[in-house]
Amino acid sequence: MAYTIRAATGDDVAAIAGIWHAGWHDGHAGHVPAELTAIRTPDAFPPRAAARVPRTTVATLDGRVAGFVTVTGAEVEQVFVAAAHRGGGVAALLLAEAERQVAASGHTTAYLVVAPGNARARRFYERQGWADDGPVDYAAEAGDATIVTECRRYVKACEATP
Ligand SMILES: CC(C)(COP(=O)(O)OP(=O)(O)OC[C@H]1O[C@@H](n2cnc3c(N)ncnc32)[C@H](O)[C@@H]1OP(=O)(O)O)[C@@H](O)C(=O)NCCC(=O)NCCS
Q: Which of 44, 99, 141, 151 is the most exposed place for a label (fewest CB within 10 A)?
């Protein structure tokens, strides 16, 4: 399918938040502390999505958002695809764009953090050439505080194309 990759805008926040909320629970429920799952309610995602618009890229199909990725420095912070679009290659397009952005900002190694039990995401990252770099404690946003979760760090070398 012919997906379009473009920078997110404020008009995309509701769609991004909906995909993020559903995908977050698909990938994390049962794999992170229950107190973190409990606060990841639908209302929790629009403000978090709005704050990340300048760092977010969306994939659209027929004008509708099918998935998104957020890049912060060398970190690929979020890769989320709507359930109806999984398995169709759009996740690979988003991740490749994220790697391009990391390299373009001068970093030579991109990294991301994934819950150990998120088997589908880990398989996906490994197929895209990412390597498990070991355990890492990740401080997940929890209002004004954080909840530390045991995760895996994945890395991939990236070079800016001239
Ligand atoms: C992670 C995500 C972006 C990957 O996109 P995708 O379109 O599903 O990826 P693909 O289907 O191309 O690849 C997934 C791989 O996992 C495999 N897979 C599918 N379902 C699986 C499952 N339940 N358990 C383990 N592996 C699974 C697929 O077969 C494929 O592996 P293969 O290429 O070796 O056959 C997408 O699944 C998603 O948005 N998930 C929810 C949000 C999430 O967890 N994001 C990552 C946060 S770190």
A: 141
pTM over 0.85: yes
Average pLDDT over residues 53-63: 97
**Which tokens sit at 28?**
């994390």
Q: Which two tokens stand for residue 61?
A: 């199909």
Of 120, 136, 138, 153, the residue with max ligand 1 atoms within 8 A of its CB, to mutate for a pocket test, comes to: 120
- For domain 4-157, give its CATH number from 3.40.50.300, 3.40.630.30, 3.30.70.100, 3.20.20.30: 3.40.630.30
The residue nearest atom 13 of ligand 1, judged by CA position, is 124
Q: How far apart are CA 162 and CA 154, in angstroms?
A: 25
